[in-house]
Model the fold of this input.
Amino acid sequence: MIGKLLDDAGASSCVVIGHSMGVQSATELAIERPDLVSHLILIGAAVDVEHRTVRQQALRLGVNSVLEKPLLSMVQSFDVLRCGPRWYLAQLKLAMSYPIEFRLPLARQPVLVLRGSRDVVAAAAWSTRLAHIAHDGTAGTINGAPHAAHHSADRAVGKAITAFLGQRPS
Done:
């Protein structure tokens, strides 16, 4: 579906960015439509193979909500309520079953795996592991940022992405 939307927009050779569970969609797009994806940026990659249960993820997300900016936590809570807890739990269960550790190596694009240094969802060891198993992977950390580093430290994330793209031609 994302590929069709990009086709309809006339896009090609895109830098694709995914956050949290969106990392899974970004990875699949890179695998299924390599013609559309030049580089893959994964921020706060979920779901760590060592913590692949709904209970563990809910606990981590709960702790994370205290670390994020209050407005972002409110928006996220509202979104979950608007979609309904049943829908959200169904999506969370799907995310738990996605084997990113087997899928990511199939992506042939350069990959940047970013996480905030205070990210309790995407642990440092997990992010480093993903960068190592990627075809051409690099791990990066945004100091002081929680899980949604692209919200709380947008300039630092932008600089990390710009530096990564400058080092790797498309």
Observations:
- The beta strands are 14-19, 37-43, 110-116, 136-142.
